[in-house]
Every structure is written in C-alpha cells, then in structure tokens.
C-alpha cells in the first residue's frame, strides 16, 4: 500500500499538491474547489496496485474534476475508472449524460472521453473507492461501454448491490490478503463489475460464460459473508436469493474444489477464531461468539473448531492470552 496525504503541508499548498498527485495517480485533469473550502482543504489516498487493477480509498474535502479534450490529446492511456461513494454524494457527466450518485452507487468513466465529476459540498468530507483499469479488460463492445459511462448503477439493489458490497469489502480487508489472494481477487473484482455492467445493459449473453459464472460466484461469496450470523443460512437460501437452482449453486463451488456448506463453515470458524484472539472480547462468552457467527449449537461449534485448528475454542483463547502476555 502507498499513502498520499496533505497532512503536514501549509494550508495554501494542499490543493495544488493534491491536483498534482491526482493527475499523476489517475490521468491528467483539471481540479477546482470552492474558495471557502480550499483554505481548509484536506485529503488522503491509500493506494493498492493489484497488477491489472489499481484500487484507491480516498477521503477528501469535496472538489470538482474535469477531464477535457485538450488533456486527452496530451495523454490518453485508454483507461476506465469506477467510483463508489463510501460517504457523501455527487454528480457525474459524460457522453451527454448527467447522473447523481450516492452511497454505494457505482459510476463508470472512460478516460478517453471528456467527463466531469462533482463531489457534493452538503457533506464536509467525502470518501470514495476508486478503481482504475485498462478498458480492454472489460469484455464488452465499445458501443455498449459508451452507453454505461456516467450511468448510476444502484448499490442498494440487484446485481449492483452485490458488486458494490464485494468491492467495498475487498477495500476494507485488502491489507489481510496475500499477494496471491490479491491477484485472484483483482480478477474477481473485474468479473463482478462486468456482471453488473452487463446486467445494466440487459445483455448478459454478451458476456463470456466463464466470466458470468465467476462473477456470480464472487457475488455469492459476498452474500454469504454478509449473512454468516444467520443460523438459517443454507445452500437452499443462497440459491433462492440468487434465483438459481440448488444444483447450479453446488456446481459453482465444485468447480473450485469446495462445497457450499464447507465454505460457509470455514468463514464462520475464521471469524470465531479472530474474535477469540481479540483482547477486547476476552470477557465475552465463547457460546456468544459462536452464536454471533451462526453456530447455534455449542457442542457442534466446539467440535468443528477442534477439527479445524487442533484445539478447543477455550484452549485456543487461553493460548492467545498467554502469548499476548509474553
């Protein structure tokens, strides 16, 4: 991870610094800021390079971006950017369209065409997740891609909600993954995005079958992670939530050498293990931790934990306690 911040700079230097850094990180563009906000401007950007995908989490005073025809003639790397508002709202304009976006919504930009994006000043601080990648990585015809720029893909419903949740979860936990995991996740992120865009086009058949299957699997993984605390989470409920047959769901996991129930159990045990090692949760009963992550039967949880980690939950917690005291 690489971090860029205006902290430590004089107030009069911060916005110019941010303009320079932003143009170097993404593509050259014009920046402007309300004069009243510019005097107190602050911004920070955490950047991860995942090979084919660059991910950044930005926290910033609201401002306006303009990618002009002149700047495109000077430098056109053929990239796309995807923005998701974590906090705050704004407006985007490209290809004759203008759309408003809010928390969780996805908005696509083609850096080879003029566009603008405005962060709303209704909130003093905006937080954005931004992805940058080559336009060629999206298996969609150019004419279809043109129809999707500056279009709000709702992050509160349907495929857009699943894709938004997956990408936001990736950003939140990105520091926990190994380089090998990140390489796989960058592929899944692009395929999940492709599925959301194809759904918006209502042209799922235009997307390669393997891409649709992997995108669906990524969305299912996100759904499971978000519902681990539900003791009634099951292959049947997962299949129903995604409007697919139970057989199709099992086939998706079998292709990865896994089972649905096994993947759910692994994720639940992983969360329980982290909670048991957390000093701030030392007074919480083991049965409460187990129930929090969907284990309704304590004896079943104890046996599953022992099978996975070679220790009972109580033994594991005690071992972590003594390690912390050394």
Structure explained in plain terms:
- With 326 residues, this protein is an alpha+beta fold.
- It has two domains: 2-226, Regulatory protein AraC (Jelly Rolls, Sandwich); 263-325.
- The chain contains 13 helices and eleven strands.
- The chain has helices at residues 14-25, 35-38, 69-74, 142-146, 158-172, 179-201, 209-226, 235-241, 246-254, 260-276, 286-292, 298-309, 313-325, and strands spanning 2-5, 30-32, 43-49, 53-60, 64-67, 79-87, 90-94, 97-101, 106-110, 115-119, 126-134.
- It has a six-stranded antiparallel beta sheet, sandwiched between helices. It has a five-stranded antiparallel beta sheet with strand order 2-5-10-7-8.
- Helix 10 (260-276) crosses helix 12.
- The radius of gyration is 22 Å and the shape is globular.
- The model has no long low-confidence stretch (mean pLDDT 89).
């Amino acid at each position: 991870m690489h971090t860029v911040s205006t902290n430590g700079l004089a107030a009069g230097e911060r916005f110019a610094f941010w303009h320079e850094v932003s143009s170097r990180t993404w593509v050259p563009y014009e920046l402007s800021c309300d004069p009243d906000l510019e005097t107190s401007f602050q911004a920070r950007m955490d950047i991860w390079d995942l090979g084919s995908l660059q991910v950044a989490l930005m926290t910033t005073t609201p401002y306006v971006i303009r990618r002009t025809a002149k700047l495109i003639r000077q430098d056109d790397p053929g990239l796309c950017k995807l923005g998701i508002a974590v906090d705050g709202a704004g407006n985007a304009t490209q290809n004759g369209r203008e759309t408003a976006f809010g928390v969780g919504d996805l908005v696509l930009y083609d850096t080879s065409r003029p566009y603008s994006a405005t962060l709303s000043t209704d909130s003093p601080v905006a937080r954005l997740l931004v992805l940058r990648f080559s336009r060629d990585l999206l298996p969609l015809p150019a004419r279809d891609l043109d129809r999707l720029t500056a279009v709000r893909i709702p992050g509160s419903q349907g495929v857009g909600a699943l894709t938004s949740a997956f990408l936001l979860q990736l950003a939140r936990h990105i520091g926990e993954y190994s380089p090998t995991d990140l390489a796989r996740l960058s592929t899944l992120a692009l395929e999940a995005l492709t599925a959301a865009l194809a759904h918006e086009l209502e042209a799922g058949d235009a997307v390669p079958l393997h891409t649709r299957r992997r995108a669906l699997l990524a969305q299912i993984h996100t759904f499971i992670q978000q519902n681990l605390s539900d003791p009634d989470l099951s292959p049947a409920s997962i299949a129903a939530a995604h409007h697919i047959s139970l057989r199709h769901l099992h086939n998706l996991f079998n292709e990865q050498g896994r089972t649905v129930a096994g993947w759910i159990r692994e994720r639940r045990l992983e969360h329980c293990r982290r909670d048991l090692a957390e000093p701030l949760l030392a007074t919480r009963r083991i049965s409460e931790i187990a129930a929090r992550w969907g284990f309704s039967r304590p004896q079943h949880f104890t046996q599953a934990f022992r099978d996975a980690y070679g220790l009972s939950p109580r033994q594991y917690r005690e071992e972590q306690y003594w390690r912390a005291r050394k």
